[in-house]
Amino acid sequence: MKDKKLEFETLAVHAGQCPDPSTGAIMTPVYLTSTYVQESPGKHKGYEYSRTHNPTRKALEDNLAALEGVNYGLTFASGCAAATTIALLLRSGDHLICSDDVYGGTFRLFDKVLGRNGIEFSFVDLTSEYALKKAIKKNTKMIWVETPTNPLLKIIDLEMVSKMCGSKKILVCVDNTFMSPYFQQPFKWGADIICHSTTKYLNGHSDMVGGAVLVDDQELYEKIHFLQNSMGTQQSTFDAFLVLRSTKTLALRMKAHQENAMVIAKFLEGHKKVERVLYPGLKSHPQHKLALKQMTGFSGIVTFFIKGGLPSARKFLEKVKIFSLAESLGGVESLVEHPAIMTHASVPADKRKALGIDDNLIRISVGIENINDLLADLAQAF
Ligand SMILES: *Cc1c(COP(=O)(O)O)cnc(C)c1O
Fold first, then answer.
1. Do 336 and 261 lie in a common domain?
2. Which of 184, 215, 247 is the last residue of a domain?
3. What is the three-class DSSP state of 177?
4. Disulfide engineering: 94 pairs with which of 126, 141, 155, 333, CB 3.0-4.6 Å?
5. Average pLDDT score over residue span 330-337
């Protein structure tokens, strides 16, 4: 559903959904069914088997498509299942260029799994137009962009990447997990495919794992749906229901995440035990201007370097009370983690060092608790 007339908050609540025609139920039911009865062979209501289509999943898919401003949505068992399905648009001998500072699981999938099956991968610093240009080869079929990057929050210029790839028929895929469509709509800047780990902000309550793919082009949608149906990478019905329920409050949650994150970023920037803070909303962020251009906000992830190396980082992480020491991000509760030991352990040590994922780097996912409690917790942990 693409309804340009309605605003984001309205689409978030309504897009893809209508009262149940048989009962009037306002909420889309959880259609826990594997199959659908046909009137006559091949004559059905659009649903045959739930790996292929399911009404609850469809409501979520249409809802997410509307939020990203495109025609088609697909939802997956996880963000990684979504990435696997997209990458398999490529075949053995094709080349994919991926941002170097990418989600650890995506790096592992490309480097250790799909790379072994004949797809070629290059990991490139896509903040550099020159580096991207140099990396493009005759067999390059896709660019994989994550912006802001994880955990260093570098910003990649989506318009620049799309312009360079559009003329060469290279598909641009943007992992929009960190921003959610509330703060960034990659399709506006020319992206062909948008993907999400719905586990994070879109679901926002840390109670399921899922993924989504959004595209505007019908042929591309059909290709990805074919792969999804063939491989069985689709989202479970119940988890689709949880995300559908959550996107209704996405706008409210994102505003709250960002408001708290900005205060925390400024607090950290002024703290004597902090070496450096990375947050796209700070004027000190090296790409603050680009962030203002392509994002409508800065979301809730803040990264900082603590003074005193690993021992000091470890002490801080053991002392936080309201912030939970855990992987993942984007939930209503505040989390804190150590990328080098936790989320990015699958990235080899030498590569982590080259990227700047040092042992004193800490990543925070700022939740929606009261800001005074969050600040007090951080202060006591230092
Ligand atoms: C978590 C995450 C993924 C992977 O998603 P899962 O749902 O954990 O499989 C991909 N990209 C980003 C940016 C993520 O944060």
1. yes
2. 247
3. coil
4. 141
5. 97
Question: Per DSSP, which regions of 13-135 are E strands?
Answer: 72-76, 95-99, 120-124
Q: Are residues 196 and 144 in the same domain?
A: yes
Catalytic residue among 62, 72, 101, 103: 103
Instruction: Give the pairing type, strands 301-306 and 361-365.
Output: antiparallel
Per-residue pLDDT band for 304 (boundaries 50, 70, 90) equals: very high
Retrieve residue 298's tokens. Answer: 């800065």
CATH number of the domain encompassing residue 262: 3.90.1150.10
Return the ligand 1 atom nearest residue 329 CA.
15
The pLDDT tens digits of the residues spanning 4-18 come to 589 999 999 999 999
148 lines ligand 1 (CB under 6 A): no
12 in any annotated domain: yes
Quote the ligand 1 centre to 8 CA distance (angstroms): 24
- Do residues 239 and 255 share a domain? no
Residue 129 C-alpha to ligand 1 middle, in angstroms?
26
Nearest to 55, CA basis, from 246, 250, 249, 235: 235
Residues 173 and 208 in one domain: yes
Among 211, 227, 247, identify where a domain stops.
247
Find the domain containing 335 and state its range: 251-381
Whether omega before 151 lies within 30 degrees of 0, making that bond cis, reads: yes
- Catalytic residue (one of 2, 36, 47, 51): 51
Question: In total, how many domains does the chain have?
Answer: 2
Element (H, E) at 258: helix 250-269
Burial 63-101 (b: 16+ CB within 10 A, else e): bbbbbbbbbbbbbbbbbbbbbbbbbbbbeeeebbbbbbb
Both 287 and 354 in one domain: the answer is: yes
CA distances from 54 to 36, 104, 151, 170 (A): 10, 31, 35, 32
Name the 3-class secondary structure at 144. strand
Residues 306 and 358 in one domain: yes
The burial class, CB within 10 Å (0-12 / 13-18 / 19+), for 22 is: exposed
| 361 closest CA partner among 148, 150, 104 | 150
Please indicate, yes or no, whether residues 120 and 269 belong to a single structural domain of this protein.
Answer: no
91 belongs to the catalytic site? no
CA distances for 130 relative to 36, 136, 138, 160, 298, angstroms:
53, 10, 17, 11, 26
Look up 279 and say whether it is catalytic. Answer: no
